[in-house]
Amino acid sequence: MSDDTPHSSRGSAPKSWLDRIAGMFNAEPQDVSELENVISEAANNLLIDEDTKGMLHGVLDVSKMRARDIMIPRSQMATLDIEQSITDILPILLENNHSRYPVVNEDKDHIEGILLVKDLLKFAFLPDAPQCHLRDIMRPAVIIPESKRVDALLKEFRQKRYHMAMVVDEYGGVSGLVTIEDILEQIVGEIEDEHDDAEDADIKKMASNIFQVSALTPLDEFNTHFGSHFNEEEADTIGGIVLHAFGHMPERGETIELDGLLFKVSKANSRRLLQLQVINGKAPVVSEPD
């Protein structure tokens, strides 16, 4: 009997832990909302950590998203003209540090292909490299509609081994692009590489009065750059100020005017703002550059 008693006490802890899990899933979730509650309860019961909770919620968010929800807008696309030589495109490559670029003919509605920067390596030591043309080395572009489900797109990215797709609207015009990294960031959060510079990435000038701004830009830095007077005791970042002003989690494309600046949500998910377009001088939103 004495041997049985300690054995039972030792077994009670794992049994209790298993009971907690079983209790959570005993009533099978009937919809996504209930499943999200199960995940939140698991985090509250310390069965999973906050990072895991965030990723699980991110997976559920992705299942509800369309390409239009996460794409990089056409105004922020760095493109190459098909008539440019390798020498001509080098400044663009150095400035943007992307691994892939859409190749266009005249404007962004005419996508001819995709340039992978690594494909230029074989021309690096050729004496006639500057005379090589993009049309000879670019790869086919993948075109998808704005309504494409993001989870289905991720599956295609993996199966067909491409990392970028051009997004078109119902009229066939290019509205943006999406990469596999854009999808993964919805699940695991912002992904930075060795080319990302926090200072340069916070505020990027797109045109004379149009700026791409990270929602995480420190408020004091934002005020200094734009000469604005947002209260630095109300929030640490410009995203916090904008979110408070909206009074709800805004969707991509929503706008609001604050302190003489027009803010347009460029990138967001159900949990946080990611990127803002800031228009100085109250210029109309429709005047985005190609």
UniProtKB/TrEMBL annotation:
Residues 71-130, 137-194 form the CBS domain. This is Magnesium and cobalt efflux protein CorC. SUPFAM superfamilies: CBS-domain pair, FAD-binding/transporter-associated domain-like. The keyword Repeat applies. It holds the Pfam family CorC_HlyC. Gene3D superfamilies: 3.30.465.10, CBS-domain. One of its GO terms (cellular component) is plasma membrane.
